Amino acid sequence: MSMAVLILMLLGGGLLAWQSERIHPDLPRWTALATVIVALVFLLVSLPPEQPTLPTDPRGTGDWLLHLKLAWMPRFGIALELALDGLSLLLLVLTLLLGLIAIASSWSEIDFKPGLFQANLLWTLAGVCGVFLAVDMFLFFLFWEVMLIPMYLLIAIWGHENKTYAATKFFIFTQASGLLMLLAIVVLAWQGLAASGRLSFSYFDLLGLTLDPRLGWWTMLGFFLAFTVKLPAFPFHTWLPDAHTQAPTAGSVLLAGILLKTGAYGLLRFCIPLFPEASLQFAPIAMGLGVAGVIYGAVLAFAQSDFKRLVAYSSVSHMGFVLLGLYAWNQLALQGAVMQMVAHGISTAALFMLAGALQQRLHTRDMGRMGGLWHQAPRMGACAMFFAVASLGLPGLGNFVAEFLVLLGLFAVQPWLAALAALGLITAAIYSLWMMQQTFQGSPDEQRKLADFDVREMLAMGTMVVALVWLGLYPQPVLDLAQPVIDSLQHLVPSDNAVVALAPGAAVNKP
Amino acid sequence: MTVMDFQALLPLLVLAAGATLLMLQIAWVRSPDLTGALAALILVLAALSCHFAVAAAPLQVTPLLLADRYALLFCTLFCLAGAVTALLSRDYVSQGDQPEEFFLLLVLATMGACVLACAVHVASLLLGLELLSVSLYTLIAYPNKSILPLEAAVKYLVLSGAASATALFGFALLYAATGTLGFSAIGQGLEETGMGQSVLLPAAVMIFTGLAFKLSVVPFHLWTPDVYDGAPAPVTGFLASVAKGAVFVVLLRLFLDANLFRYYRLVEVTGLLAIFSMVAGNLLALLQTNIKRMLAYSSIAHIGYLLIVLMVCTNSANQALAVEAAIFYLIAYTATTIAAFGLLTLISCDPSGRENIQLQQVSGLFWRQPVLACLMLVALLSLAGIPLTAGFIAKFYLVNAAVSGHHWILLFSLVLGSSIGIYYYLRVIHYMARRPGEHGTEHETISNRRGRILCGLLIACILLPGIAPQSLMQYLRAILH
Amino acid sequence: MSGLQIPMEHVLALAGLLFSCGLMGLMLRRNIIFMLMSLEVMLNAVALAFVAAGAQWGQADGQIIFLLILSVAAAEVAVGLGLVLQIQRRFKTLDMDQARRLRG
Amino acid sequence: MAGVWLIPLLPLASALLLILSTGKMPRQLVALLGAGSVGLAAICVALLARDFLADGEVRQLTLWTWLAVGEFTPRIAFYIDGLTVVMMSVITGVGFLIHLYSIEFMWDDESICRYFAYMNLFVAAMLVLVMADNLLLLYLGWEGVGLCSYLLVGFWYRDPANGRAARKAFIVTRVGDTAMALGLFLLFTELGTLDIQPMLVAANSHWQVGDSLPILATALLLGGAVGKSAQLPLHTWLPDAMAGPTPVSALIHAATMVTAGVYLIARTFGLFLLAPPTQEAVAWIGLLTLLLAAFAALAQSDIKRILAYSTISQIGYMFLALGVGAYASGIFHLVTHAFFKALLFLAAGAVIHCLHHEHNIFRMGGLRTRLPVIFWSFLIGSAALAALPFTSGFYSKDAILLSAWEIPGIGPWLWAGGLLGAMLTGIYSFRLVFVVFFGSAHTEPDRQPGWKMATPLIVLCVLSLLGGLLVLPLSGVFPPAAHPAASHAVEYISIGTPLLGLLLAYLLFLGRQLSIDTLADGPLGRGLSDLWLKGWRIDQLYDAVWVRPYLGLSHWWRNEPVDRIYNALVSLCQWAHHRLCALQTGQLRWYATSMVFGLVLLVAIMLRNAT
Amino acid sequence: MMATLFYLAAFIALLATGLALTRTNAAHALIYLIVSLLAVAVLFFLMGAPFAAALEIVIYAGAIMVLFVFVIMMLNVGQEGIEREREWLSARNWVVPGVLAAILLLELLLALRAAPATTSGVAVTPKEVGLALFGPYVLAVEIASMLLLAGLVGAYHLGRRFIVRRERRR
After folding, report:
1. Domain-embedded: residue B247
2. Contact at CB, C9 and E112, closer than 8 angstroms
């Protein structure tokens, strides 16, 4: 029940924030802040003291901490079914934390209808939480779609100069692919009907269906498309630079930090477990797309002159690692992918917050018009440097652990792809440092006045710095949370060798 | 005719009596408010009477009409839609001269739709269709301050007349082939007749053409935007929802009763036209700046989605689900369309060009009329098929039906069409969300409390089946089994 | 009194001919009055087909449908001619090609 | 010793404190914290070294398990043996001296706080690098020092050229690092662990000498080493890295970080022993690098660039040593090189400091009397660099050359090449001394070095002179090398060659008995000196082969080629929209026609199918 | 003999229709249309549908066409209108409608080829029609009345304004 309460809390908080604008224009953000904090505390408090044994499917899909099932549409075997496991918990905490960051980053940015802004923000969070919790496929799709609308409004109303184009592109890309997913979900459910004689959209009922290989392949593709558009993987990424660039800071933070993770989550939770055989067949293509994304994103990031666009392309590059990790499909790579989800969420959110702060102060995102900002804003510079090196994968920070694990896992499967993907480490260095050079280094414009980060912003940044360092030096708690899911994924294939068999020439002889 | 017959036909009787009553009332005292309220009351009563009629259903009343729960459900729907239209158009027509007859015609048109819902015979189909159309001609041309309605009415009259004649010619050929006029008898006759398919198929195509014209299926869609655009907004809503719904209902009934699904070629043609409609309708709407025209084009696409049902019905195993899907879709679509056009009625208050509603006019609506804009948002999202709205569940139904029949091409057309469609719905939303200063001129809107309450109710009707559709689903299943 | 035994295909062909004439008139004429006349021709063709079919089966139904078509035609023409009057008043012409304000 | 973790923690904590102070700390405190923390660490290291020398016991300390995924369980753990102690001593010892020196050198800089933060961070990272128990932690330190190098090279960020140099340093080394990372992947995939000692054991049990996998793995590790240690072909960043403050060059780009590659190979020598081809490649890379860099050093005019090339060259010697299996000699040279090269850099820094940031040696001159402390430092440093007898460099370099001679087959060639390099070293190092400190003065110094500068110089002078007498506790680390048994002739030639270089330098640049101009003015001379000045034009080559294509690619892709596809789809939709809209003429006749057309079409379809 | 009459009437109907739709003067066209309707009435009679024949004459030709006459008289288009009509009927405009109509006709004829039946030859008397009309079709009569009501109200509303305005102008 507490999961439903969590979502309702965010929804209600949104309404409250919206209406509180009538009383005082500052009230919405406090309301939003309070809501997210309360939700976070509530989530952590409502966790069961020890892991109860909850319904697990025949294939042993991890250990579920919480489970809720309410009847909704028995006509189609659809229920309000929510469940929480380690992975969901991890992503929920990330979501709420980044929600806090998003609120903090929009603290003084929004002066037009702040109430509605905060409401949309909270509603997006609610939708994302729903995505991470839903285990009924229909419900999942519902949250998947519904979270788009407040996000769309965030971009379309409070975005920058080219917001219409960006918001529309974002919506159409995700919606079109979402429709394909709906199709795939329905096909899957009907396959379930054929197999078990009962129409059901429950994840647990659909797991382990034996599908007709061809149909399974196409159905898998439907899911895959929806998730990779959201992820985004090359070549479905083109909505992302526009959306990220045009969104208000909080929107970019949410988009990059959380919304992209829903794609990865979907692949991890649904696409692969539901279609293990098809995914196995598809893995080489998916990994190819991942590598293409890593390199393409990095090269394009370097080519940008717009700060936010650069960060956006870097996201494309980083999410390529997630795709690689997921389809390399061994423990190391999967853990790496999960780590990357978390670490990238934090580092990119921070960079977007920084970009937003710069835009708010300089009224430009064009790096050609910046330069030497370190002189005027050393705190900003230090933060920028930290997150730039985080995003280029400096050891000791979360991103490194993630990328290293992914590549390590991938190397066992596809050494040549791993070698190609490792080029991403170099290209990441190129664009990250180039970004630093253009913004904070170089000779300053002495006439320019630039207010450095204030306490609020430093607090937000500091949180993220600490989180990244923690992830980089002691990521074990995160890994442990994700471990059950990853174990269950590994059970899906006969053995590790099945994946390795895809790559002739890769010999694995572990001692 | 027995008492049972009368009970089964109660909604039609209420409507007929109501029409008479209205006429008398108009003759006695001219008062738009009174007539409007009375008309709405009659329509609501008729809707309520369906509840009583259900007790007698299913009952074949003369060879012409069949009052079963399927028909009565649609009677209820059409009557309610008519009542809402009556309430919405109150302000619209009261500015012209002699607005009272408008309501009379509205009641008659609703009655035509109800007749169509009950029709199982060529005669009742003909009469229902014409009663609906003839009333609509006048309704469309009703306002007398603008020439656009006139143009729309003439176009509709000429083309619709031709379409009716085409359908009738088809029926005549069928009659010549089978010697009967009842739908199911035609079906049986077709099985027995030796005249064969060579005459049957052109006949069926002519019938289908006639009805497809009224549904504005591509390539018989050209009239749609012009008529939607020119007609007064509430009438457009009525035309788009009730008139189309009624025609679809009778088309479905004809196909089911006469079991035309046997003729796979015919069904295939409907599938082809469905694909055309889905794609072309959405493409046509793509860059429209006139909202009414945009909705007209989108209605073409929606009919395309709906036609999928006919394809699915070919497999008798999936027929029940397909019909269920169609009913749900029609209900959702009717509620959404009436709401959308009702909102347009409230938005456009400029008396001179109120038939013509441009995107510019809704610019910044979110900030001027937040409630209205939110309602519009919900209506648009429902049309676009976004979850939590009836439109989504309806689309979900369709997808289920199509998946059950493995109609992949249709499904992909649906996805393609919907993907294109998002753009223009979003565009309206985007215009509504424009910040002050981003749009040129401010447009005044009337604050009409009653209209807003009504639209609010309609929005509830959109959201409720979107959020908790189970009871409706259960009811539909009960009807069909 | 009895009727003739005419081959149905001849009657239906005549009906089809008349129907096509009506359609052609509809496509050809710009004057709204002629368009309405074409409509009448089409309805008349339909009526002919129905009556012929009724005669083929020796049923009254064909004639009854004819009767209904008659009322339909009457109603349509009544409204149609009302519109014609309005068109003449508003557009100052009966040329329907001039009525092209709604387009695109 | 349980407090080992304090050693990297001290500078790290200091760095964090300095960063968190955001430049608001008073200078004195900054200096105290910055230099003091390293000093404390040095004391700790000294205590550790005393303990170690007393018992010779390998010390291991596990702080926590970094991460555990399946069999992959790298720990944050330290492994301290003789090699580590040596490295730690050099890092903290030389590091402390340089920090001390920096206080004065950087005193006037507004960003002194940032400077010390970076420097301390560097020391911490470098310590982690050498103390790491597993290759992943080593990689952490490895990248960490790279970052600090980047930060410090680009320390004066206002000049875009410095930024460019910093990026170049980072990116070029990153290329090597990536190769190394791949090496780690390979090692883990094959051996199942990254802990160095178990890994070496596992390698020996899994692989035979000459197997292809160890060759590949070591080649990849070598890639990392080559990048970090500025060896061919990834050496190009080091000369540019001189853009940073001079003490940085002394610490990072001479004494410690650039020798990390040497340390890596020495640390994983067990793997290299399994891969003779790689081992040989190390030797050849070393030889080639030392020669190329020595030639390039001949033609430079920037004091720091000369030293940079000489550093490359000297690390080439170390690689040569590693390649011929003389690990202990290599490390020995590393240590002595740390002393004399730090000394040289610090002295050069002092010159620059005293001459208003003048870098061009030809605008100096005659400083012998004006800056005596620096002169003597420089002289001693150069002597050690040139390996004049009885300086520290002499012992270490001599050991390397003799070891090279021992190698059957290619040995004499390596030896001869090394000798040629030694002669060139003599020439360029004394060219520097003669040009800068003798002759007539071109620039007047405006200040004299203070005690904070002088003390490190003096200490390093002593170390450079006497460092050759040190006995490094490496016997437990490396396999005992066969005692060099070369003939005396070989030894004498080895001793004599640097002297020959010195003589040549004297004749060319001080005595002017040989005219440098006639040599340089010939077409060959001019060509060669230009080639050498530009570092064999390798930068230009890389520019053409890598940089420009990459820029071109990014420029080409700038406007999203993928988006074109989607835009084409959009255009298609729009085109279809306009075409379809063109049908909506509003003309009633046309509408009727279209309807009939549709009807005709449908009937036709039906009839076709019926018949 | 009777059959000849049938085909003659059919020919007249066709000819008159064709002429009606190609006239430039609306009044002339109307007369041709009435002729056509009368010829169809003959056909009805010959096929054994005297009731339909009578209604065709009385209502179709008699009542509905008179409506047209009224309107044509009211509008009083005049000579230039006739000229314009002639202009519009130029050969170019004939092509597409002609081709389409011809194809449709061809298709219909093709489809009707296989219909072997004839009319029964049995007359359906007005009595039978009446019985059916007020038997099974009684509801149709009721609904038709509603239809006529709708037509009436519509025509009244649309035409009324025209009349009112005219009177006012006078």
Report:
1. no
2. yes
